[in-house]
Amino acid sequence: MSQSIKEQLTKGVFFTAIAKYSNMVISLVVTAILSRILSPEEFGVVAIATVIIAFFGMFTEIGIAPAIIQNKTLTEDDLSSIFSFTVWSGLLLSLLFIACASPIANYYKSPILQPICYYLSINLFFSSCQIVPNGLLYKDKDFKFIAVRSFSVQLISGGLAIVSVFLGFGLYSLLINPILSSFLLFIISYLKKPVKFKWWFNTNSLKKIFAFSAYQFLFNLINYFSRNLDKLIIGRYLNMNTLGYYEKSYRLMMLPLQTITQVVSPVMHPIFSEFQNDYKKLSDSYLKVVKLLAYIGFPLSALLFFTSKELVLLIFGMQWTKSVLSFQILSLSVGFQVILSTSGSIFQAANSTKTLFFSGLFSTIINVFAIIIGVFYFRKIEAVAMGLLISFIINFFQSYCLIYYKVFKMDVIKFLRILVLPFLLSIGIWLILFFVNYFFNNLNMMLSLIIKSLITLIICVLFFHIFKIYDLKLFLNQIKRKL
Question: Which domain holds residue 376?
């Protein structure tokens, strides 16, 4: 990795990490407060509406943002046409979503879903409008501005959500964050990267990005079902209460996952796209990222498994006990998912969105099969979680076999070797925490969480020192210089 690329990646990850971890704290505080006031059923209702609106949102995005980042030849007129297309398509799909509100409410036998869908259509429109300005910010690698923008919006939206629930808004308090966030993100992004709006747009501009964005859109479409079908089916064929418990366990599992991968992945594509014609350099650079993520993800997975009860009950409250076991099962997938979530950026950077689509198609088939068995045969959210755990592991290996054999034309063994030591480290942590959990089972939950976290940290530091994996002093000095 050349020094300039390394500096760009470090800078991008640094600013993105500050924003993401600040947002995580804000999100946890907001969720903890709302979870103690609102019921699991209310969270389940909003989860359904959010999943459905995400489906409509895919038809506005259609892979445009990654295509803008990847394509280095787009003119101002092209960008104007693409922006105008996203505005019109956002308006059209928002109206369509409003029209579908009543059938959605009837299907799930929940009348409150109808007005919720009306309000969330605002989120759909502004999310569509900000696609191009946001894509340009990432293309310019303006990670510092993106970080400040993200933190500010999350702070304002989260604060108003808390105020609204104490003012008696009830269920509607859950809508303030997504609606206000999409509006503020659009306004701020557009002021920074203004793009001319046209009443008519040039289809030739869309054709310039179509070859790349078409397969990206198809991947997003099947990935949507892969990631959301569980919630759609649980809400319809079990009940909203059960969905509320499952949604909390899944969201809590995704929180550390997202705070790691969403720090790295948004930075990777804009920077690694520079290597789209040099697969060896792309592979070598990516392996350094994989190594770091493996040393974070696998030990974290072990820690989450043994602190599942503490995390669920301390964050959400005692009424969420039924979420503990499914979260514990899902936590075992975190190590694999932390790495796997960055694979899309490599497919994109290598101009291989077609292969990304086929990888996603295989993943979706496995995930859907696991979800259907869990819901219709076992009829338990724990069975769904176990099925998804197995599915995530299978998809991890198929995805990287495709990247190395199909895209890079290299042996995947080099990639797998990187994972051996991190995996052994996580097994060691798992065994030690097992005994800690067995002999100190009656500890105060907060004290238990702190002790297990400190033990995990100490084991990792000793492991890094003994095997000379990372120079921790050098790392800390680099952080100080950044600050």
Answer: 238-483
